[in-house]
TrEMBL record:
InterPro entries xref list: ClpP/crotonase-like_dom_sf, Enoyl-CoA_hydra/iso
Identification of the protein by name: Enoyl-CoA hydratase
SUPFAM superfamilies for this protein: ClpP/crotonase
Gene3D superfamilies cross-referenced by the UniProt entry: 2-enoyl-CoA Hydratase, Chain A, domain 1
Domain of life: Eukaryota
């Protein structure tokens, strides 16, 4: 998803755990309502998250916070996820979140895809796990 030409915007209004959070980590922008809970619980089962979550999380929230998050299996509540810059913005209700994201997406869609794609590629190339890292996670 991070290599698609258009931005991928996620909205979360319920728990996103395991593979759901790994999907979120690969999205370009993440927005949640107060109902969201985010985690990678795999460590509690003696497993290694296998879809890029470990590779993405330090890039999003830093090494120490990623280790705390991944090694405990604890949930991130919406406020903490926003404080850690993992989500762009937290909303009181899903309706407020969807209204905001709809306006955001409509605004972005006004502009030529070539410019959007070029900006996204430059930003993503600056901070993105290598495909080899994600493949190693799957093997683990």
């Amino acid at each position: 998803m991070s290599n698609l030409p258009q931005p991928v915007i996620a909205t979360v209004s319920s728990p996103a755990r395991g593979i759901a959070n790994e999907f979120l980590a690969a999205c370009d922008m993440r927005f949640t309502s107060m109902n969201a809970r985010i985690s990678n619980f795999e460590v509690t089962l003696g497993l290694h998250p296998g879809a890029g979550g470990v590779a993405w999380m330090p890039l999003h929230i830093g090494r120490a916070r990623a280790l705390e998050f991944m090694l405990t299996g604890n949930d991130l509540d919406p406020e903490t996820a926003e404080k850690y810059d993992y989500v762009n913005k937290v909303f009181n209700t899903p309706d407020e979140m969807h209204d905001y994201v709809d306006r955001l997406a409509e605004r972005i869609a006004l502009f030529p895809l070539a410019g959007i794609s070029s900006i996204k590629r430059s930003v993503t190339d600056t901070i993105q796990p290598k495909l080899e890292q994600i493949a190693l996670e799957g093997a683990e």
